[in-house]
C-alpha cells in the first residue's frame, strides 16, 4: 500500500537506499560537523569565551545541532578553563533510529507556523459558506498560523500532486455526518490546487455528493450517514425536530453499505448525532429510549447506542470480502463556552490550548474511549484475517486543543452588521476552512506514507 509511487518506497527500502548512497552523505555530514565545530570555536573566541574561561570547572557547551536531509549532526564540546576539547562529533539519522516511521501522530502540540494555510477563501471555491470564516468577516487570522507537531516527529504538509499521482483510478469515500462534509471541503481545497474536480452527483438535499478529478480519474464521494445505522430522522436543517428519532441499532444505513464494493479508501466516523432524543430498536423490537417524554419506555444511554452502532459498522467492515483501506476518524470535540448550541454558547478564543489547558472533558473522552475500545476489537479481528487495512485516524487530541478553530458567529456573512443587539447563533462544532482540520489531511497523507 502506501503512496507507492517513484521514490515513495517503503521504509525498509528507503533505509537500504540511504545506506547504499551513504558515501556522499557521510562526506556532507563530516563537512557540516567541521563547520559546526568551527562555529563553536568562533563563538568561544568572543566575550562568551571569556566568560566560559573564567569558570574553573569543566562545563559542557550547548550541543550544536544541524538538520540535513533528515539527519542530525551533533557536535559536543567541553570547555575547561579556556581549553576547549572537542569530545565528539557524531550523527544520528534514519539508519540508526527511524523515528518518522514509528511516531505517534495523534499525540503532540500546536506550534507557531509562519507559513500559514496552503489555500484561502480566494483560491478555493469548495469552501461552503458556514465554514468560510474569512469571507464571512472573522476579524482575526492568528488561528491560521499554527502547525500540528507530534512529539518525536513532524507531519509534512499535504502534497496535492503526490496524492493525486498515487491515487490514480481510485475511489475515496468520506462517510458520516456534517463533520465529514467539513473534512471533504478541506481535501478538495488541497487537491484543487493541482486539479479542479467537477461535481458529478448530488442528492436532493446536497448531503451526499460526488466529485471526479478527470485527468487523474479519481472519485471522491461524500456519503451522508450520520449514525452509520439506519435512522428515521424528523428534523430540519436548523436542528428543529418534529418527532423523536427512530434508530435501528442492528441495521446499517444502506446509503454507505450498498456502495461499499466500489471504494478503495474510506474515511468514516460517527458520534455527533447520538446525544439527541431517540427511540432505539433492535431486531425489530423497541428496546429503549434516550431522553423520551414517554416514561413507559426504558431509558438507555446514548453511549450504549453509540457503541452498538459502531460495533455493527466495524463488524460489516471487517467481515466484508471487499477490503478498502479504512480510516476511522475519532471524536471531533466542540468548544461551546457559557452555554450550548441552543443556549447562547460561544467560542471566542483566538489561540490554541496548550497541552492540558482543555480541562478534563469527561464527556468527550467517554466518546473517544468507546471508539478506541471498539476500534481495537475490530482491528484485532481485521489483523487475524490478515487484512490489516483498518486504521485509526486519531485526531481527537489535536482537535481538542483548537477552541479557536470553529466558525463561531462567522457561520453567516458578516453576522454583526445588523448591530450587536441582534442574537447571533454560534457554531462551535464545525471548523473554519482553511483551519485546524486541514491537519487531518496532513495526517492521512503521512499515514499512507508510513505504510
Ligand atoms: C587550566 O587547565 C590546565 C590543564 O587542564 C591546568 O594545568 C591549569 O592549571 C589550569 N589553569 C587554571 C588557572 O585553572
Ligand atoms: C529509537 O527511538 C526510540 C523511541 O524514540 C527509543 O526507545 C529507542 O531506544 C531508539 N533506538 C535507538 C537504536 O536509538
Ligand atoms: C476573502 O476574505 C477576505 C477577508 O478576509 C475578503 O476581503 C475577500 O473578499 C474574500 N474573498 C472572497 C473571494 O470571498
Ligand atoms: C477510472 O477508474 C475506474 C475505477 O475507479 C476504472 O474502472 C476506469 O476504467 C478508469 N477509467 C480510465 C479511463 O482509466
Ligand atoms: C440516505 O440519504 C438520504 C439523503 O442523502 C436521506 O434522505 C436518507 O434518509 C438516507 N438513508 C438513511 C437510511 O438514513
TrEMBL record:
Predominant location: Golgi
A matching Pfam family: PMR5N
Listed GO MF terms: xylan O-acetyltransferase activity
Domain named Trichome birefringence-like N-terminal: residues: 102-154
Record has Transferase as a keyword: yes
Transmembrane segments: 20-44
Key words, A-Z: Disulfide bond, Glycoprotein, Golgi apparatus, Membrane, Signal-anchor, Transferase, Transmembrane, Transmembrane helix
UniProt-annotated location(s): Golgi apparatus membrane
GO cellular component: Golgi membrane
InterPro entries reported for this sequence: TBL, TBL_C, TBL_N
Membrane topology, record value: Single-pass type II membrane protein
Domain Trichome birefringence-like C-terminal: 155-447
Keyword Repeat appears in the UniProt entry: no
Source organism, top-level taxon: Eukaryota
PANTHER family in the record: PROTEIN TRICHOME BIREFRINGENCE-LIKE 25, PROTEIN TRICHOME BIREFRINGENCE-LIKE 9-RELATED
Homology family: Belongs to the PC-esterase family. TBL subfamily.
Protein name (database record): Uncharacterized protein
Organism name: Oryza brachyantha
Amino acid at each position: 500500500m502506501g503512496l507507492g509511487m517513484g521514490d515513495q518506497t517503503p521504509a525498509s527500502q528507503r533505509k537500504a537506499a540511504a545506506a547504499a548512497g551513504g558515501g556522499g552523505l557521510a562526506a556532507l555530514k563530516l563537512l557540516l560537523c567541521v563547520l559546526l565545530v568551527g562555529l563553536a570555536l568562533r563563538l568561544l573566541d568572543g566575550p562568551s569565551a571569556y566568560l566560559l574561561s573564567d569558570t574553573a570547572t569543566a562545563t559542557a557547551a550547548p550541543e550544536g545541532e544541524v538538520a540535513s536531509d533528515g539527519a542530525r549532526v551533533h557536535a559536543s564540546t567541553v570547555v575547561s578553563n579556556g581549553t576547549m576539547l572537542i569530545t565528539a562529533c557524531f550523527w544520528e539519522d534514519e539508519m540508526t533510529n527511524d523515528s518518522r516511521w514509528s511516531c505517534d501522530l495523534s499525540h503532540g502540540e500546536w506550534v507557531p507556523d509562519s507559513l500559514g494555510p496552503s489555500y484561502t477563501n480566494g483560491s478555493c471555491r469548495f469552501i461552503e459558506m458556514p465554514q468560510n470564516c474569512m469571507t464571512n468577516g472573522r476579524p482575526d487570522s492568528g488561528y491560521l498560523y499554527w502547525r500540528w507537531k507530534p512529539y518525536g516527529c513532524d507531519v509534512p504538509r499535504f502534497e496535492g500532486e503526490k496524492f493525486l499521482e498515487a491515487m490514480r483510478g481510485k475511489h475515496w469515500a468520506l462517510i458520516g455526518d456534517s463533520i465529514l462534509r467539513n473534512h471533504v471541503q478541506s481535501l478538495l481545497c488541497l487537491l484543487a490546487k493541482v486539479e479542479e474536480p467537477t461535481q458529478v452527483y448530488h442528492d436532493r438535499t446536497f448531503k451526499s455528493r460526488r466529485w471526479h478529478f478527470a485527468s487523474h480519474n479519481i472519485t471522491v464521494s461524500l456519503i451522508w450517514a450520520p449514525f452509520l445505522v439506519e435512522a428515521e430522522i424528523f428534523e430540519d436543517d436548523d436542528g428543529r425536530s418534529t418527532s423523536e428519532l427512530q434508530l435501528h441499532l442492528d441495521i446499517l444505513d444502506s446509503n454507505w453499505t450498498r456502495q461499499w464494493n466500489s471504494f478503495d479508501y474510506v474515511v468514516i466516523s460517527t458520534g455527533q448525532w447520538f446525544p439527541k432524543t431517540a427511540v432505539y430498536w433492535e431486531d425489530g423490537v423497541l428496546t429503549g429510549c434516550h431522553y423520551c417524554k414517554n416514561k413507559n419506555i426504558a431509558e438507555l444511554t446514548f453511549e450504549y447506542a453509540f457503541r452498538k452502532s459502531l460495533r455493527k459498522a466495524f463488524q460489516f467492515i471487517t467481515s466484508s470480502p471487499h477490503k478498502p483501506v479504512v480510516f476511522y476518524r475519532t471524536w471531533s470535540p466542540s468548544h461551546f463556552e457559557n452555554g450550548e448550541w441552543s443556549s447562547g454558547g460561544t467560542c471566542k478564543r483566538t489561540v490554541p490550548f496548550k497541552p492540558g489547558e482543555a480541562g478534563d472533558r469527561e464527556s468527550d473522552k467517554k466518546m473517544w474511549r468507546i471508539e478506541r475500545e471498539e476500534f481495537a476489537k475490530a482491528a484485532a479481528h481485521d489483523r487475524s484475517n490478515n487484512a490489516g487495512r483498518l486504521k485509526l485516524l486519531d485526531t481527537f487530541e489535536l482537535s481538542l486543543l483548537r477552541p479557536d478553530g470553529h466558525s463561531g458567529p462567522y457561520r453567516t456573512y458578516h453576522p454583526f452588521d445588523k448591530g450587536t443587539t441582534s442574537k447571533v447563533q454560534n457554531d462551535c462544532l464545525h471548523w473554519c476552512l482553511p483551519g485546524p482540520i486541514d491537519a487531518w489531511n496532513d495526517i492521512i497523507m503521512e499515514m499512507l506514507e508510513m505504510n
